[in-house]
Design brief:
α5 packs across α9 and α6 crosses α10. By secondary structure, this protein is mostly helical. The chain is globular and about 60 Å long. A 3-stranded antiparallel β-sheet has the order 1-2-3, with no helix packed on it. It folds into 2 domains: 85 residues, DNA polymerase, domain 1 (Orthogonal Bundle); 172 residues, Intergrase catalytic core (hpI Integrase, Chain A, Orthogonal Bundle), CATH 1.10.443.10.
Length: 299
Amino acid sequence: MTDLLRSYHTYLKLEKSLSDNSVAAYEQDLQKLLDYCKQHNLDPVTLSFDDLQAFVYDTFGQAGTNARSQSRILSGIHSFYRFLLYTHRIDADPSELLQMPKLEQRIPVVLTLDEINALSDAIDVSTMEGQRNRAIIEMLYGSGLRVSELVNLRLSNIYLSDDYMLILGKGSKQRLVPISPVAKEQFELWMKHRCHLEIQHGHEDFAFLNRHGHQLTRAMIFTILRRLADKAGIQKTISPHTLRHSFATHLLQNGADLRIIQQLLGHEDITTTEIYTHVSVQDLRNAILQFHPANQQKE
């Protein structure tokens, strides 16, 4: 089994080009199936559709397993059996007919421009960490980066003279992303502080570092944002992805083409972009008031 799981890990990394976080998530969800097989003395390679159905009923029958968690676990199972089929370990995929639960579409949290400004104004840019945090906010909101893309951003992939960055996105796919003038200005100010850090070996090329000269973590970015939101008096529960949502939504609201936004965000499927760049309820209301004939004043 160890050799099989090692091969599956390699398949996810090389054949599917998934990030380390995605690979870990798939393997973690697969472990639930492996634990079930061990408990019932079953071989996961030879499971039938009925066996998988029994696993689903046993696992998802527990209270607290919501539709989103179910969908994630089933995605991991589908991936594992596609791997077994791909490597000729099985002749047919027993997970093919497993039904995915219907998911409610969540409307993402978006900050207004005033809230974005309040977030930036809450930063004390007279300190090294404050200037770094200001540059982080501008990179996330000004370029729509994922938090993983931000923490892994390298100096060697930032071309300030040409105003763009080379971003390594999901599945190790590269894309060029422009740097906004504000983000460029704040990043250059951060670089003046960064050069005074004692940078640890192996971390020299990472754009954003902590006070000890180490690459910043995803968790630290979450903490920075939540502290700033509290300081700015923002009541919404925000994360780095909130700034990405806000970037896309504000572009759309100001007339940017959806295909351009798709490319900037690094989405393969434009339907993903449509979800991220939802039209606010206020926009819908304004459209009715402006364009519906019943609401237009007669001259």
